[in-house]
Amino acid sequence: MQPLILEQASQFGGNCKGESIGTNLYSLGPAYISIPETNSPSHRMLNEIGVLKYGRVETAAQKEVFLNGKVLPNFWSGAHESPTVFAQMKQVLKKYKDNPAAFNHMSVNQWLRQYFPHITTTLYEYFQYYAWSSFGGTLDEIAAGEFLSWQASEQNGILVFPGGNSLITQLLFQNLRAAVGPAQLRTKSAVLKVIPGNGFVDVVVEESLYKLKTIRTKFVVMAAPKFVAKKIISPIPANQLRVMDSIEYRSFMVGNVTLRKTIPSKGFDLYCLKKEIPKIPTPNATFSRGFTDVIFSNWAQGDKGSPCTLTFYKAFPYQGARQFLLSPFAHNKHRDFLLTELQNYYPELGITNSDIGAVRMTLWGHSVPVCQAGLASSKELALASQPIGNIVFANQDNLVSPAYESSESTALEAANHILRRFR
Length: 423
What we know:
This protein has helices spanning about 40-50, 85-95, 110-115, 120-135, 145-155, 165-180, 225-230, 240-245, 320-325, 330-340, 345-350, 380-385, 405-420, and strands at about 5, 20, 25, 30-35, 55-60, 65, 70, 160, 185, 190-195, 200-210, 210-215, 220, 250-260, 270-275, 295, 310-315, 355-370, 390-395. By secondary structure, the protein is an alpha+beta fold.
């Protein structure tokens, strides 16, 4: 086999991109993964491409947050509010690590009302911001099983790389290029049509302006999200198209602020809590604060990078935000929101306005599939990713679980499907 990989953008990586200034690496998108089990397929792949040696683990005991602008260490101890309730939640989470499907029919809020109604204010606030930032949805929307399994996994710690998940894609790209040759990795190639045939697939590609080419291949792995796939695959069975249409996607913003001075990292990813229940954003009443959480990018490098960059995340947990992000005014508006909010943290960080160097805003319009209660783990969702002829799907929206692990597992499943057909 000689795989050909087509990418519409000018570089590979999707939203797993990163940049560097000086010796400091920072992410423009997702920034960490779960710790893979030793000798699991994920562990073997990450080890094979050579990324694991760069990883650093943050344990749950190290989890810090900002509370009213001040660093609160060991958030999960609950010492600031109710150690008993936090200990009970940690005990409950142990049951959900490996069986998310059993509770994906209900939302997180439904689960809390039924099984954990005594949740404290800051724990609920943390859960809500986590749902916004990681899932792109609210606790009224997100499937409880998937949410709780993520929280359970993070009790064992998270694995962080310099530049976030972009280091994984960078090393994966380098390994692929060495294995298949640079000619088989093509950027700036817009796929216009994917047409399944009798034992083959025709792929219509625009390689340059007005230059079209049709490539006939035995199999196609459709790694694009379903909202793209449904526009270019023809035909798609009506029921499958209906389920594809039901998957929602949300927007988020990443802002990187590079400082003119180096400051010690306060932790890795700190959520910014106020000890109050957040109001749910809507298109008409958006989240007024500049960000939900901040990553100290230098933490992954042991504070050895220079200059220091802070990475801020702000999700838009409602439908319709993408159209506003496309506005030419969106960049400056969200930059100003971020910088205004950041001033509240100046005393704790030990910085002033004069320490702000560069600001890099990245607006992702539709990159997060919503892990909707009732849809996640359902037979209905599985229909959306059924192979169409020799077209197989590999994307996190196969599982509506917006995670590196979902992308990897669906890619492995697609590869195994094709290999079985060759045997």
